[in-house]
Amino acid sequence: MQTNSAAAPLDKLAFDNRFTREMPGDPITENSRRQVRQACYSLVEPTPVAAPRLAGFSKEAAALLDLSAEACLSGSFTSVFSGNALLSEMMPYAMCYGGHQFGNWAGQLGDGRAINLGEIINSRNQRWTLQLKGAGPTPYSRSADGLAVLRSSLREFICSEAMHHLGIPTTRALSLILTGEEVVRDMFYNGNPRSEPGAVVCRLSPSFLRFGNFEILTARGETELLKKLVLYTIATDYPHLKAVDSVATYIQWFTEICERTARMISHWMRVGFVHGVMNTDNMSILGLTIDYGPYGWLEGYDPAWTPNTTDGQGRRYCYGNQPHMAQWNLTQLANALYPLIGAAGPLNEALDVYRTTFQESWQVTMAAKIGLKNREPEDAELISRLLDLLRRTETDMTIFFRRLAHVGTGTGIAHDGLKLFEEAYYAPAQLDAVYGEQLNSWLQSYVSRLRRNSIDDPQRSERMNRVNPKYVFRNYLAQQAIDKAETGDFSMIDKLLEVFRRPYDEQPEHEGYGAKRPEWARNRPGCSMLSCSS
Ligand code: AMP
Ligand code: MG
After folding, report:
1. Mean pLDDT of 286-290
2. Atom of ligand 1 at shortest range from CA of 97
3. Of 109, 110, 389, 449, whose CB neighbour count within 10 A is largest?
4. What is the pLDDT, as a whole number, of residue 525?
5. Where do the domains of the chain lie?
6. Which residues crowd ion ligand 2, with CB under 5 Å?
7. 110 lines ligand 1 (CB under 6 A)
8. 11 tagged catalytic
């Protein structure tokens, strides 16, 4: 690997590699697959690629690094963020972590295809770790190749940025680069491998630590190292807490992780995001959405829906189960922290904080989604009647809540629900008179409730449109962008980034991107079915 000293456009990047400086690393530097003990990472360099080509970059993510659009379009940007060149201060490494996958302890996993390049301090004194995903094998690659395909990389790149603009805590994505090499994948693990274009995404996060980084240390009885990693995390990422070895501090920290996780899940539920693989190695210690794999967005409102065919049987990670799964994952983290606490009581209390924070946050969210400013005890019933109706017939969640903002409360207005929500229904032929009556009766209750709301119709509609997005990254839009990008046409990537920059605004020129899923996409792989293969 060459060190690129003449990378003028990237000169500004000021590195401060705190993780590798303060935490113990693996003494072995050979890139061979192994169990790594008593260490939090292994040094490993990206594997150079044949013909890197920039397919997209996020100007907002670049700004976090003080990089201009011009810098992102430079040749050195493409070489560095494809893994073909290292800047002199970079110190690439893969992290060691474990995880519970689909409910079972899986032992050591680790960054099998992610390589951290180092940490940047930007002009606002914020710390950002740079990480390449798909840049070649590491000691944690197990039997896999360390690579990623364009399809999954594009999905991660655009969705990270879309989530950010939706106001949802997430890791960020700087760039999407094709490697010029082919990668073989059997997309549905059904004996149909095909060659696909390889790609590398550069992700940014203040920290990429996951619940699994802590779990692996406890599983191996490495309690001193566990304590060191916890204190490191508190000092670096929770600086408002005192990084001292005390049970009270650890509990305060864990409680905050519970609160952050609860808020993140409540956001996912608000916009209909389904992560798809909520294993503990995919849960960020900062409460960020991380590891965009077979995720999806609810189109028809169905709590049992999961985009992940690998989870099609158990539906462990379906939309409606996400709040519970986050709690299950937090319980695994609590178990991992137990050696530092020595008592279950305070950990259970923190887990209760998860539950109460989620419940409160969800109630506030649902009230906001239907435009209630003040809250009344009967609101819960109004909301549950509504969700019941949405479940009864395939109703596009995103469109429904945008249309709901049009309900007026003036006297003499009679609402025809079937007409009002026409655009949101996938199977209008199934809508019978009984459904129409129930819907109208709900609308009547809603309107009388709104008459006790402390804001007027235009204000209410404006507030609703700030929590109910118009534009989400519908699965079929991702597939269309992939199909184009696979032929070398990257225009839709930029277009989607542009649309998702303002997901709550009406954008008449982009109306089509907010339309419900077309019928051709109902059963098309990539549009409604995804797998972990990426
Ligand atoms: P995921 O299901 O993507 O969260 O991955 C679970 C584990 O498998 C993590 O340790 C990943 O780094 C690793 N992994 C996934 N795909 C690959 C790959 N193509 N090559 C190497 N490791 C991988
Ligand atoms: Mg993962």
Report:
1. 98
2. 10
3. 110
4. 85
5. 2-208, 212-369
6. 282, 291
7. yes
8. no
